[in-house]
């Protein structure tokens, strides 16, 4: 994801809260597995 502007980062929609969330560096290797925007949403699924 180097050289990509912040507004062009991939996005997903959280199934719990319905809000969009963008790619984060810590999710670089597991982006395909990320489903929820936060721990709170993951726990309240």
From TrEMBL:
One Pfam entry name: DUF2256
Recorded superkingdom: Bacteria
InterPro entries in UniProt: UCP037205 (IPR017136)
Protein name: DUF2256 domain-containing protein
């Amino acid at each position: 994801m180097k050289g990509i502007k912040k507004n062009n980062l991939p996005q997903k929609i959280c199934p719990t809260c319905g809000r969009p969330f963008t790619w984060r560096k810590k999710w670089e290797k597991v982006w395909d597995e990320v489903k929820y925007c936060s721990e709170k949403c993951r726990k309240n699924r």
